[in-house]
Amino acid sequence: MADKKSAPVLDTIEALLGGLEAAVLKPIAVPVPELGGTVYVIPLTTDEWLDPEAGGKLPEGATATHRRGWSVARWVCDGEGKRIVKPDNLPVLERFAALPYQAAHRILSTAGVVGGDAEKNV
Asked: At what angle do helices 64-73 and 90-97 cross, to 10 degrees?
C-alpha cells in the first residue's frame, strides 16, 4: 500500500503523458570563461544515451580529432534547446577538440555525459 505522502502514481495514459510533457528537457546555461561567456547545453535524452549517433553522424573521413570535438559540441544549443553545431562542420569540431579540458568537462558534466555509464558515449 502506497504512503499518502509519496509521489502520485502515473497509472493512466493521461497521467503518464502529462509527466512526459513536464519532463521536456530545458537548456542549461554553463559559464565557459575560456570561450568568453556562457553557452547553453541540453541534457541527454534516452535516445542519445543509448545511441551515440542519435544527435547526428560524423561524415566519412572524420578524424579522431573530429570525434573528440563532436563529443563536446553535440550538447551545445541555443536558448530554446535547438542544437547549433552540426556533425559535418569539421572546422568547428576541430575548435571544440582544442578546448581546454576544464571547459569541455564543464559542458559535458552539465549535459549529463560525464560520470557512470554515460561516459561510454563520450
From this structure: 80
32-69 pLDDT per residue, tens: 999 899 999 988 777 877 886 777 789 999 999 999 99
Question: How many Cα atoms occupy the beta-carbon half-sphere of 5 within 13 Å?
Answer: 0
- Kindly state whether residue 6 falls inside one of the protein's structural domains: no
**43: alpha, beta or left? (left if phi > 0; alpha if psi -120 to 50):** beta
pTM for the model:
0.69
Q: Specify if 12 maps to a domain.
A: no
What are the strands, taking DSSP E only, across the chain?
A: 28-32, 37-41, 76-77
